[in-house]
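Interim report, section 4.2 (structural modelling).
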Amino acid sequence: MKRLFVKGNEAVAMGALEAGCRYYFGYPITPQSDIPEYISREMPKLGGTFIQAESEIASINMLLGASACGARAMTSSSSPGISLKQEGISYMAGSELPGVIVNICRSGPGLGGIDASQADYFQSVKGGGHGGYHIIVLAPHTVQEMYDLTILAFDLSDRYRMPAMVLGDAVIGQVKEALVPHPYQAPLDLPAKDWAVTGKLGRSDQRIVKSLFLGDGELEAHNWRLHAKYKQLQQHEVRCETENIDNADLVVTAFGSAARIVKTAVRMAREAGLKVGVIRPITLFPFPTAIYQQAASTARKLLCVELNTGQMVEDVRLAVNGKVDVAFYGRPPGAGSLPTPEEILDQIRTHCG
Amino acid sequence: MTTALKNVFDRPVSLKDVATHYCPGCQHGTAHRLCAEAMDKLGVQQRAIGVASVGCSVFLYGYFDIDVVEAPHGRAPAVATGVKRVRKDAFVFTYQGDGDLAAIGTSEIIHAANRGEAISVIFVNNTTYGMTGGQMAPTTLPKQQTSTSPYGRNTGNDGYPIRMAELLSGLAGVSYSTRVALNSPKNIIAAGKAIEKAFRLQMEQGGFGFVEVLSTCPTNWGMNPLAANERVAEEMIPYFPLGVFKDVAPLAQEG
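Predicted structure of the assembly:
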């Protein structure tokens, strides 16, 4: 297909429509408003539904309702709006509903700012709402991946009957670069949505979508069943990009837009003769624990770079479990706080020494 | 000799043959039955999708023989919006209490109503939070004692009870808004007709209908069921007058 020059946010919207999403519910917030703008323009042409809701809370609950009917549906927002959606995400997780949520992260806490941030890592991967659950979290680092991973989010979400999040940020949402869209083909083995409400339509059984379980032992069993799905994800759905980790003294790890800066810095380091590798998690949940363990068996040290004060680094340290040192370099978000490749290169030199 | 007996009373097919968990004298059972009778009459049980809210009626999937989605507290109108936009041929209704609809869910009900969603909303107003044990509701009457207004609702501190049926009637998206009560056979018959009208409005004209149902909560009011019915007549209806506040054809849909 033709190469296009588009924004990351537009690529998300294009990927969603290509994946057959015909229901979008959202509320404007910078830096993701290109997504509802694009979809509000294109969705009517496809006979789909676009609703600008009264709030992020209403948006996520409209998504809950549409997903309960078995439709492919989505919402998008940015950090403060995603906080508002956490109630609904918890209910969707508890009700085992699919649905795609896009978070084009901005900086915080509070109103913070509109610059790129990775400070929503914890909120995304640890289950940001109440009650102990996880959602699938995908972290694109190019415009192409914004498209590809949005499509993947729909498939994984449907396959595992749980919400999936595309976790971008202001940089990757606003950057404009090449995109080669490709036609979507649904995996043939996606399970039928035989749980979706339709009205009984002659069925003898009722279909009930709910997260309340009050019977003796019911809720415990429900939680263990959700937990078993998270283990399945860990076994089958980890996605990760690596560069040169078998032959590295230092392995640098980062996700999303931070990984772009890291890759440039690592290239400069290699040109200077340093033995440096890269781990870039594509799935943040499930987390690529085994890759870090592998790296820890050969590298002398790991360096985790994030656009925050240190979040993913905790999962990296858990993964290597003390086997090697895991250093951290972070820049908390804000205007003028995006690190340069040279800055990361200095860190690489320090930790290679 | 055989005499053909005419069956004049039966359980609606939309209602399951089970006992409810509701307290003695609670009128959720009556309101459920009226909804079920209306669904039967319109022949929509097989394409009905109910949206349950949080409160005593969260278990309505246990009583209605229909598909049900359980919504977070207050969010039923938003969930029903998502449901109806996908299942345009389904009959979709929410069933919400006063805390759910008139406090935590005020935003969702106002905007679903204002969009003129083709759904029906049953709003059970018993002036208290039933499930959590009788706390002050947005509809608790002035001076009414509850577990969180032990000295009586103080309007200077707590504001005034919200009249939702009147409030919603001011919105362009609302076709039908009414308030009924269940405290007498006459009022129950009128309530059944209002619910049927709201349901019919959705199925025949795609309109948004709102039925506020004044209801009792004898347990949390500390009254027997008869005294509770008297309270509806003597205290609730004077503040929450029965009547139709809006009854118009849905606005023409653009596009």
